[in-house]
Queue: 2 jobs
Job 1
Amino acid sequence: MKKISSIILVIFVLAYSNALMAEWSLYGETDNAYHFINLYETSSDDKYVYYWILTDYKNPQKNSVLIDSFLSKKVFKQTDCRRFRTSAAEIIIYSKKMSEGKIIISEKYKESSFSTPNFDSIGYEELEIICNYKNK
């Protein structure tokens, strides 16, 4: 009986490890997605703040490059709060919601391509949240 309980515990931990490792906080909703940020796994240096965001789509997404549809996307961001601009350092696209399921694409970017989000956009709200959090 003790062995069966241990096996069940291991299965439970493995099944929910992705959810346990990330602390996603909802910070916005658009017509087609919910937007989350992980404030508990941030880091910074003298220039940038590094953190993950998660976009959880309401409906399956398709694009001309991908064969498979996808329901969520995680992006590791590099943000310059002094200049209020951000860049994607890594993007992972998943087949299921909340970064679950098959990884459809995983790309890391060596060079930063910074942009400043438009005022009154979900990207602008993201930068306000992370920069305010960093300055606490």
Job 2
Amino acid sequence: MPKILLISSHYPPSNLTATHRVRLLVKYLPLFGWDPIVLTIDESYYEEKLDLNLAAILPSCQKIHRVTAFAVSKPRLIGDLGLRAFFQLSKRASEIISSTQIDFVYIIIPSFYLSLLGPILHRKHGVKFGIDYIDPWVHFFPGSEKVFSRHWFSTKLSKILEPIATKRASIITSVSESYIHPIFERNPRLKKTTQLLAFPYGWDPGEKEAIAIYNSNTQLFVKNKKLKLVYTGAFMPRSVSILKEWLKCINNHIEEFNDVEIHFIGTGVPKSSAIRTSITDIAKEYNLYGKVIFEHPNRISYFDVLYHISIADGLFILGSSEAHYTPSKLFNAFITEKPIFAILHPNSSASKIIEETEWGLTCLYSEERENEFNVETLQQFKLWKHKTMTNSWSFNKEKASYYSAKQLTEKLATALNELV
């Protein structure tokens, strides 16, 4: 069985996005003839709250190597964990490749700097490698308009480092095609040498059973006669304008929302210079906080997220003004079997998935469509509300199965088989 070394800055008990990408691949790769080995950073260096329940569901037979990292300096000059552990990861990866017959190295980014391990290991050991883009690397970082700021340097550096990292890559994958195509436009030589493959996170049907028996100690809202929608995860800078239009729509038609609560969970405390107010502050501008809009900014565990979606009436997804944004949280609706109400960019691949699976309704937002947005969104929400209250959703579970982590991992394994 060929061996694949997966390198990621985070892995359970971390609950960050990259964690879920890696853990699902590692679970199902053996079914398709690949033996996965994980190389990550020791959890004692993670700055986020650990999710021990997530770590508990990892198969005991998994091969996991963890390395140390340099401490954060004061003042905080280098915050990126992948960069602080770059030397340690490079050294341990070389040791693993030297002692084990590694057939392929697969690097999950962010941390974006980890992608540079690919060409280093390829040059030293001749091993083929691929890079998986969970987020776009070369793009406008919020705050980078300020010359010589940390974000300005990050934007400049990404344009320099990406061609170096991708030059010898055998395959580049991503959660969305909209992430991949700009890479090949910036680096046209890759079209002749590098495969591309886009596949979303997917979902694990086995987690339905886990959430059914999960006993949560966290209760962020109580059951009452109101319809409850749950939004989970960080609140992004490019979502502010969409949120304001959505709240404006609610405020203009408040009679349709008197029996509705929308709970934003795990949004975090705003740190970016591009977000100077929280969801709470924005909702207060429209006199909606505590009436329709509620915010619980602290992150909660993965199974607590699933639990709150399962006791709510639906999952709310608020997209971004950037077309490439593909929210992985939509797959939580498949696990909990709850309908989605989403506001997304017209080019977001998530809208296609929701439409294909008939797992909810989507409203499309862009600056060009602002005039139509209020009318269309209200109509869609009234329809969503009716279908939810009458329990008349008919989810296409066969189509949803195409997006299972098992099916998507098979796509990756098939591509890898062609490379080694």
